[in-house]
Amino acid sequence: MGIAGMGLRIRNGRIKRMPVIVLVISYLLGSIPFGLLLVRWKSGQDVRLIGSGRTGTTNTLRAAGYPIAIITFILDMAKGAAGVWLARWLAPGQIWMEVLAPIAVIVGHNYSIFLLEWDERGRLRLRGGAGGASALGGTIGLWPPSILFLIPAGILIYFGVGYASVATMSIGVFAMLLFAVRAGLGLSSWIYVVYGLLAEVLLLWALRPNIQNLLNGAERGIGWRARRKN
């Protein structure tokens, strides 16, 4: 085998490994617990010991107020979008990687390798958030104009329904509907709909306690709903 052949084999090997590299980097990116770091910087508290114990936007709002919550939301959203951009940069033309990379970000956000700990039963577990902001960021990364629809819709549900968990659960549904309409019009691939489906599965799984609270009428409300309960 000549030098050219050896070079081709090495290059092909790198190309084959690239999807794995993209997924690993995306997971590690998603694992960065911005909410925990920001709350600790702002107040010295551990957000995992407050409210739901999650590291996302809603719990940082409880722990440190709106400014820190908004910054957390933006950074967590950026993680999801960055997963898409990373896939397009390192694995160009591989549309499934555009879908799976932001999903890996959500998994990292919800189950951060940097938040490995023992639970009360002596089992190892990974802590994190619910994945809403990162799921939104992934949708925006796949189709940037979606921010014009998703942000207003999310705000309306957040304050209109009065439950942060319902707003979070709606993100994957909106992504599926949005990408289904675009695919039906021939503007994007149906594979993007799979992103919305996988994201919604992860969101629902992470929000199991909240869903139970909603069914029992015990979910924490926000805005008008919180005032009504008081």
Summarize the structure.
The protein has a two-stranded antiparallel ribbon with strand order 1-2. With 230 residues, it is mainly alpha-helical.
Question: Any overview of this molecule?
Answer:
The protein is mostly helical. The protein has one domain (3-229). It has 11 helices and 2 strands, in the order αααααββαααααα. The chain has helices at 3-31, 34-43, 57-64, 66-90, 95-110, 132-142, 147-161, 164-184, 191-206, 208-216, 224-229; strands spanning 116-118, 124-126. Helix 1 runs parallel beside helix 5 and helix 5 (95-110) runs antiparallel to helix 6 (132-142). It starts with a helix and ends with a helix. 43% of the residues are buried.
* Percentage beta strand: under 5%
DSSP strand count: 2
The number of domains is 1
The coarse overall form would be: globular
CA-atom Rg in angstroms: 19 Å
Low-confidence stretches: 3-8
- Structural class call reads mainly alpha
Order of helices and strands: HHHHHEEHHHHHH
Distance between the termini: 78 Å
Largest sheet entry: 2 strands, antiparallel
Strand order of the largest sheet: 1-2
**How many helices does DSSP assign?**
11
What is the helix content? over 70%
* Overall mean confidence score, pLDDT: 89
Task: Give structural attributes.
single chain, 230 residues, mainly alpha, two-stranded antiparallel ribbon, 72% helix, globular, disordered N terminus
